[in-house]
Amino acid sequence: MLETTLKALMIAGLAGDGRANAALLSGCALRLRGYYSKRLPHREADVEDLVQDTLMAMHKRRESYDVALPFTAWLHGIARYKLIDFFRRSRIRATVPLDNAPDIGVEDDGAAILARLDIERLLATLPAKQADAIRLTRIEGMSVREASTHSGQSEPSIKVGVHRGLHRLMATLQSKN
Amino acid sequence: MNTDDLIRTLAADTRRVVPGAGAWRLAGALLAGGFVSLLAIDALFGSPLRAVAATGVMVFAVKLAYAVSMTAVSASLLLVAGRPGQRVGLRYLWLLVPPLVVAVAAAMEVGSASPHERAALVLGSTWQSCLLGVVAMSVPVFAALVWSFRRLAPTRLRLAGFLAGLNAGAMASLVYALYCPETAASFMLVWYSLGMAVPALAGALLSSRLLRW
């Protein structure tokens, strides 16, 4: 769609015409898809996210359009801002795993980390003694005696803690599913 | 969500926007924030008219003119900063006009004063309360302006934050001028301008947190 068409639709939309606004947003979606996919080649999912994000922003901030100015200049200003914001966000996200890499260890992959996080979240729901017992014996791989000296709990307490804790975790998981 | 669905949802929420809504929102925020500041300073310092009676109307009018012109220039630039797709360029130079006019007056004043009077002209007797008062009174205005920006689209955040702070500082100096007992242009040039500059810098520094969208 051309500037004149888009601008006419925008003005009708500002007057409260929902159909014009829908046509405007569709026209803008096309333009934005072109704009973003040229700058982010082979990243269709990111492009579509950006298109949607920009459409929502331009809808929410319609007041910021000055009818004395070209519509496409306004749209381009918003699209460009969202693109820069995307780069800033994705750069921050990309640096997080690198910073943590030495702690995680070489053999760990993403799935293992996520699994570990899930387990920690589940263990946090248990009483501390049971959680410790499970963590030491089943995750750290200690024997019952080692776990007992390490945690200060008695050996039977470790055994019972593992048994009851696992039982409770199973129950939690089943109720969630 | 699928983009077509999103468009349908958004279009279902198409409300009428009155022409100039963004400008009205900004002006409303500026006045509302200024009013809150006025109430606050009135509670602190009491009646505003005593200072004006002491300094005379002409001196008060000069201070008011400086504050009003800075408020007007920064408000119009702030509106531009909240609306994408415009070239501003040389229009920023308008920000320099009021301080330059005051600077000329201050230079003549300082030039005609004897050397040992000059420090007193600049410092007056209330520079601390002036600086503190203007900066403190800018806070409600700044908060209101940030709120009004939720419907605007600043694409250069640092610039928008700077202008919002400057605008808040200028409005605060307008409110403070009602209470200011000073009479020297040199005093006004230094302390009123500093009172506007501090919130402007704070606005620029806070912009990436407060204005991001």
Which labels suit this protein?
heterodimer; A: 177 residues; mainly alpha; 0% strand; rod-shaped; B: 213 residues; 9 helices
What does this structure look like?
Chain A is 80% helix and 0% strand. Chain A is rod-shaped. Chain A is built from 8 helices and no strands. The two termini of chain A are 49 Å apart. Residues 96-107 of chain A have low confidence and may be disordered. Chain B is mainly α and 213 residues long. Helix content of chain B is 76%, strand content 0%. Chain B contains 9 helices and no strands. The longest helix of chain B has 26 residues, at 185-210. Chain B is elongated. The mean pLDDT of chain B is 92. Classes of the chains: A mainly alpha (177), B mainly alpha (213). Chains A and B meet through helix 2, helix 3 and helix 4 of A and helix 1 and helix 2 of B.
Could you give a quick summary of the protein structure above?
Chain A has 177 residues and is mainly α.
**How would you characterize the largest beta sheet of chain A?**
none
Strand residue content of chain A: under 5%
Shape of chain A: rod-shaped
Radius of gyration of chain B, Cα only, in angstroms? 20 Å
Return the structural class of chain A.
mainly alpha
Bin the helical content of chain B.
over 70%
Please report the distance between the alpha carbons of the first and last residues of chain A: 49 Å
Question: Could you tell me the strand content of chain B as a percent range?
Answer: under 5%
Largest sheet of chain B: none
Oligomer: heterodimer
Q: Can you write the helix and strand succession of chain A as a string?
A: HHHHHHHH
Question: SSE order of chain B in H/E notation?
Answer: HHHHHHHHH
Q: Report the count of strand segments of chain A.
A: 0
* Largest interface by Cβ-Cβ < 8 Å: A-B, 39 and 29 residues
Q: Output mean pLDDT of chain B.
A: 92
Query: In terms of per-residue confidence, which ranges of chain A show pLDDT below 50 for 5 or more consecutive residues?
Result: 96-107
What is the helix fraction of residues of chain A, given as a range?
over 70%
Estimate the global geometry of chain B from the Cα principal axes. Answer: elongated
